[in-house]
């Protein structure tokens, strides 16, 4: 259960950085990725970016709570995370830090 949450966040983190960098994805705030809005993904960015990650915000955790975790799992092994400035270890810790009650097994 914990491993899934961690993997899920890795996916979310990849999407956050990709959206913010405009190098990988061009998405408007009206669109969603795996049932998470772009603004919801962006709310998590500071929690997965070294060297001084923040505690995940309420907005970040709320966004993740509505996510299609199975969908996000499909991104878990992406090579984009480090290239986009996301620390995979921090990303994998986010679902636990948000205390999400549900999990999918990736």
Strands, helices and their partners?
Layout (H helix, E strand, L loop, with lengths): L1 H20 L10 E2 L2 E2 H5 L15 H8 L3 H5 L6 H4 L4 H10 L9
Antiparallel strand pairs: 1-2
Helix pairs in contact: 1-6
Organism: Castanea mollissima
Keywords: Signal
GO molecular function: fatty acid binding
Characterise the protein shown here:
This is Bifunctional inhibitor/plant lipid transfer protein/seed storage helical domain-containing protein. By secondary structure, the protein is mainly alpha-helical. Helix content is 49%, strand content 4%. The chain is built from six helices and two strands. It has helices at residues 2-21, 38-42, 58-65, 69-73, 80-83, 88-97, and strands at 32-33, 36-37. The protein has a two-stranded antiparallel ribbon. Helix 1 (2-21) crosses helix 6 (88-97). The relative contact order is 0.29.
Give the number of DSSP strands: 2
Q: What fraction of residues sit in β-strands?
A: under 5%
- Give the distance, in angstroms, between the N- and C-terminal Cα atoms: 9 Å
Total helical elements: 6
**Oligomeric form of this entry?**
single chain
Question: Rounded to an integer, what's the Rg over CA atoms?
Answer: 12 Å
What structural class do helix, strand and pairing data support?
Answer: mainly alpha
């Amino acid at each position: 259960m914990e491993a899934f949450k961690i993997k899920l966040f890795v996916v979310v983190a990849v999407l956050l950085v990709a959206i913010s960098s405009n190098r990988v994805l061009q998405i408007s705030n009206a669109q969603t990725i795996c049932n998470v809005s772009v603004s919801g993904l962006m709310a998590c960015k500071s929690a997965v970016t070294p060297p001084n990650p923040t505690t995940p915000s309420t907005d970040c955790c709320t966004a993740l709570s509505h996510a299609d975790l199975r969908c996000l799992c499909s991104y878990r092994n992406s090579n984009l995370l480090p290239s986009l400035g996301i620390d995979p270890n921090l990303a994998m810790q986010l679902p636990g830090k948000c205390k999400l009650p549900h999990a999918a097994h990736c």
